[in-house]
Design the sequence.
């Protein structure tokens, strides 16, 4: 079962594939991915067996983006990666954070520009040969564009058409039950059978783990990993 996947018989964790590269990416880019998250991303990408794009909801500074892009290259996949993030913090969160104390030298707008600039810079550096198509939209709007097969300009200035099937999805945007649920079911609409969805922050009996358990009850997905975040495979 899921959590057994990364445990060797002696109880040690399975190694992160290409750990040296991953350590370098982690040291260079801000993010929160643990080894088990990376193992799940690697598995999801390695298992892709269609040419449809992968999607990522919530990119932040590009750590997961660049890890997904790296494994796409490592396994000689031709899949493109589409990302959704607006790099916008709401004012209440800003006001409740230490950043508020830096005003007026540093504003919420400065922080948006910094995050977006970090993302684009990190991707231009580490995904230079397979730059993701990063759309500066919240996920609900991203999926509306996807549904309508719309063209959009990505953050690297390229016009790109959205839509169609999806091979793999990483959901790591707004971590509330309602948002994650919409992101999951929006991704599910396009995910091919046999494709994987990795959902971050789905642990500890919190709202997102409750969501995953509801999804599992429907019988359409099975658990591939639960370390403690869930990697799900679409069975039907
Ligand atoms: C935990 S961070 C993502 C970390 C990134 N996946 C990584 O592992 O490097 C969450 C991100 O989700 C973004 N976000 C928040 N609400 C969102 C939404 N509704 N749609 C898309 N992205 C959203 C935030 O701007 C933030 O950059």
Sequence:
């Amino acid at each position: 079962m899921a959590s057994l996947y990364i445990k060797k018989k002696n109880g040690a964790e399975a190694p992160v594939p290409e750990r040296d590269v991953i350590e370098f990416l982690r040291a260079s880019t801000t993010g929160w991915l643990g080894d088990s998250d990376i193992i799940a991303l690697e598995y999801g990408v390695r298992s892709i067996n269609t040419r449809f794009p992968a999607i990522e909801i919530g990119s932040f500074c590009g750590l997961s983006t660049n890890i997904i892009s790296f494994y796409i290259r490592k396994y000689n996949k031709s899949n493109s990666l589409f990302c959704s993030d607006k790099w916008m913090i709401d004012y209440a969160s800003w006001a409740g954070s230490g950043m508020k104390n830096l005003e007026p030298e540093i504003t919420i707008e400065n922080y948006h520009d910094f995050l977006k600039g970090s993302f684009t810079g990190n991707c231009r550096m580490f995904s230079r040969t397979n730059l993701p198509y990063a759309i500066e939209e919240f996920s609900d709007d991203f999926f509306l564009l996807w549904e309508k097969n719309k063209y959009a300009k990505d953050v690297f200035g390229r016009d790109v058409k959205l839509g169609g099937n999806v091979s793999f999805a990483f959901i790591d945007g707004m971590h509330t039950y309602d948002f994650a649920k919409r992101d999951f079911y929006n991704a599910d609409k396009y995910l091919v059978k046999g494709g994987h969805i990795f959902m971050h922050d789905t642990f500890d009996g919190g709202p997102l783990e409750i969501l995953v358990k509801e999804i599992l009850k429907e019988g359409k997905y099975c658990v591939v990993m639960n370390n403690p975040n869930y990697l799900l495979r679409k069975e039907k």
About this structure: Residues 7-11 have pLDDT under 50 and may be disordered.
